[in-house]
Write a structure and sequence with these properties.
Helix content: over 70%
Largest sheet: none
Strand content: under 5%
Order of helices and strands: HHHH
Radius of gyration: 13 Å
Number of strands: 0
Number of helices: 4
Oligomer: single chain
Length: 97
């Protein structure tokens, strides 16, 4: 599960960076794009740094909330792979030890 968490975090950060470049190049900065980029980046950092079930669920939810406004324009769909990996990590059974 640790590898999936790292992959989900790295994908979220990469997508946030890609979106930032696209938004700047297209001169399309608005509150929805800033929210999507910031939410994806924060969730990526949470997945890479924090190691609890609560933080995994919070990061997954943040990815969902960050992607929602941008899905109308199509850019938010780029966060879906990271979101699905993060939810898989958050909901996977864990060893009680």
């Amino acid at each position: 599960m640790e590898k999936l968490r790292l992959i989900a975090g790295a994908v979220a950060l990469a997508v946030a960076g890609l979106l930032a470049v696209v938004v700047v190049v297209r001169d399309a900065v608005n509150p929805a794009t800033v929210w999507t980029i910031a939410g994806g980046a924060i969730a990526g950092v949470m997945l890479l740094r924090l190691r609890s079930r609560a933080s995994d669920i919070a990061a997954s939810t943040l990815l969902l909330l960050a992607a929602a406004p941008a899905m109308i324009g199509g850019m938010g769909w780029l966060l879906v792979p990271s979101m699905m990996l993060a939810w898989g990590v958050a909901l996977a059974p864990r060893d009680p030890a």
